[in-house]
Amino acid sequence: MGTVRLTVGQAIVRFMARQFVERDGREQRFIAGVWGIFGHGNVAGLGQALEELGDAEEMPYYRPQNEQAQVHLAAAFARQQNRLQAFACISSVGPGATNMITGAAGATVNRIPVLLFPSDYFANRAPDPVLQQIEHPIERDASANDAFRPVSRFFDRISRPEQLLASLPEAFRVLTDPAETGAVTISLPEDVQAEAFDWPERFFERRVWRVRRPVPEASDLADAVRLIMAARAPVIVAGGGAIYAEATDALASFAGRFGIPVVETQAGKGALAWDHPMNAGPAGTNGGLAANRLAREADLVICVGTRLGDFVTASRTTFQSPEATLIGINVGPMDAHKQRAVAMVADAREALCALEAALGTAGYDGTDAAYRARIAALKAEWDDVVTRLRTVDGAPGDLGQAEIIGLVNDAVGGHATVICAAGSLPGDLLRLWRAEDPGAYHVEYGYSCMGYEIAAGLGVRLADPDPAHEVVVMVGDGSYLMMNSEIVTAVAEGLKLTVVVLDNHGFQCILALQRSVGVPDFGNELRFRDRGRNRLTGPYVPIDFRRHAEAMGALAIQANTPAELRDAIATARTADRITVIVVPTEPEKRLSGFESWWDVPVAAASGQASVRGARDAYEQKRSLQRTDLQ
Ligand SMILES: Cc1ncc(C[n+]2csc(CCOP(=O)(O)OP(=O)(O)O)c2C)c(N)n1
Ligand SMILES: [Mg+2]
């Protein structure tokens, strides 16, 4: 058996370069490159390896400004590639490593592959405590990196080189398994990274990981057919899995042929073009009128690739029919079985095609004319509401968020990719953005992590480098202030995208939420401290976001009116680099809810009448929760 002598770092680089994925006969390299920030924990280990072998192995290295951001970027890249390609992320020991934990959690929640190599303290323990080591007083082997365990789908610590022989293949199996994927973390003590070993040559042979498309079991299929044929008012919930499995054509065919409306989640929006006759728009807390009404009355809910998060279930109040039954089509057994569903543990495309064929054979021709007429009427009504909300009304310097969304969407069209993650934008985008293809809407709302947005914009751009494809990040001022420094990376890498910053003086969505739970305005807007009151109730803190972005090297434009915003987007299109457009946004022009709810517990005791009133309303709403659907 031939061997090759390499360090652990070098072996990782070579191994990663030789892993491929295959789905539907298409084969490609899985790891597209490595993002990382060097420190004493990795500069001599993985850092040395990338420098020496990176070019020969075609494993490019990228340098972000923040380790959390690099994981967001990697996750956005993998999501936009339908999980068929990913980045690895490396960090030093201590804070560099723990900076990646938030990103790891986000990737895991959203079921998106990212491969993380945080450095760890010495396996030989000779210099303990090494700079940045947490010395746990009782558990000597505890490391800060143990915090990756609950947020990873696979975790290992390599304290001897040969452990990699078992660990790396398992890491790639998990990364490329559609049901298991998420953050995969291999913690690397800094001494082990530099140690050499005689690796079997076979370890580095090209390996192809087939991305599974499990087919539904015949008995599950038969159950689902029976339920669908008996249903009077079925709806389909389209989640992210419909997109990752490239099941969107199958979904359009299934829904159109049988007259079953599709309601969208954040991850599933775009699965059907907004103007498909069966697209009823979003359901749940941030849903629209058509979807929420159809879902409320539905007697059968066909879930396709959704984790049924509380936003689509409106904290378990979306489906109100006492007979409501769920079918759970999901490649992940946990998601498939949620809410008493008749589970179909299967790939979304395989399941939909099998269902369509089986229903056809059984002679089913879909829902009745009255139901189809109701879908059409509700959709038309909702489309009108959306059009009205997106249309500019009022004084030019008084733009609300809905109008800004309409202006941006009209300017870039329905095939550009819009990116967002937290704040009031995701809810408004879900209702108002008109996506025309499955890659057009990229809102991270599983972890809803402020700071994802700009980093993710870079990831999406790397996934689709065609300059004709527009990439637009929409970000609140609060999220921008939390994490904006990847603008510098976009400049350094020559990545062209557009960032629209909505400046509404702070955390306006949480302020609205605060008011809804009866609490007076407190701590959410960006205001000076009022010394007399010792509260943050002074004037707004003025921030020149335009100059801030310009200082980082972006083309930066202030847009105060609809015309200026349109011009700015046109300028961004012809610019040679990242463009940041800053739009003052009127905070009090908010969207209301559309017959929905979100469970945010209200204080059960208070001296304030507003809180007591909110608590009464809260208890009423809670009584609608479907605790029977468990
Ligand atoms: C990392 C992180 N911290 C806190 C939150 C809770 N949170 C959700 S939205 C939000 C405010 C966002 O402010 P901004 O980006 O300005 O958007 P706006 O609400 O004004 O639309 C906060 C604090 C979060 N989602 N993520
Ligand atoms: Mg804001």
How does this structure look, described?
With 630 residues, the protein is an alpha/beta fold. The chain has 23 helices and 23 strands. β4, α2 (46-53) and β5 form a beta-alpha-beta unit. It is globular. It binds thiamine diphosphate and magnesium ion (MG). Residues 423, 476-478, 504, 506-508 line the site of magnesium ion (MG).
Q: Secondary structure elements and their pairing?
A:
Elements: E1 3-7, H1 8-17, E2 19-23, E3 26-29, E4 31-36, H2 46-53, E5 61-62, H3 67-80, E6 86-91, H4 95-98, H5 101-109, E7 114-120, E8 154-157, H6 164-175, E9 183-189, H7 190-194, E10 196-200, E11 207-210, H8 218-230, E12 234-238, H9 240-244, H10 248-258, E13 262-264, E14 279-282, H11 289-297, E15 300-304, E16 325-330, H12 333-336, E17 342-345, H13 348-361, H14 369-390, H15 401-412, E18 417-420, H16 425-432, E19 441-443, H17 452-463, E20 471-476, H18 477-482, H19 486-493, E21 498-503, H20 508-516, H21 545-551, E22 555-558, H22 562-574, E23 579-584, H23 609-622
Parallel strand pairs: 2-11, 4-5, 4-6, 6-7, 7-9, 8-9, 12-13, 12-15, 13-14, 15-16, 16-17, 18-19, 18-20, 20-21, 21-23, 22-23
Antiparallel strand pairs: 1-10, 2-3
